[in-house]
Amino acid sequence: MAMEDTKFSLGYKFWLEKGGGILGDGFFQLLEHIKQTGSIAGAAAVMGMSYRTAWGKIKTAEQKWGIPLVVTRVGGETGGGAKLTPEAVHLLETFHSFRLEADREMNKIFQRFFEV
Prior knowledge:
The chain is of the alpha+beta class. The chain has helices spanning 25-37, 40-47, 51-65, 86-114, and strands spanning 15-18, 21-24, 70-73, 81-84.
């Protein structure tokens, strides 16, 4: 089969490493869902994971990265919930901006090599 007959698509992953902790797209999606739902349980459900798994990922990231990411409040009449810390909001926004720019550049490079 000649190269011209094959249409390629680009796939890649990015992650950030710090203090032995690795955070990638899935973790940032978890943070985004917490921001949107106001709940770790709600975010976990959207992602198809258990609350325990989601909470474990958050606690591990906080320990490895040395920054608070989520603040929780216990239920009651007003209900419980969770929200991102200012540090987590900044990290999430920065990663999102990085991904947008990286996606644009990766697609340019891909087109240069494979979309002749």
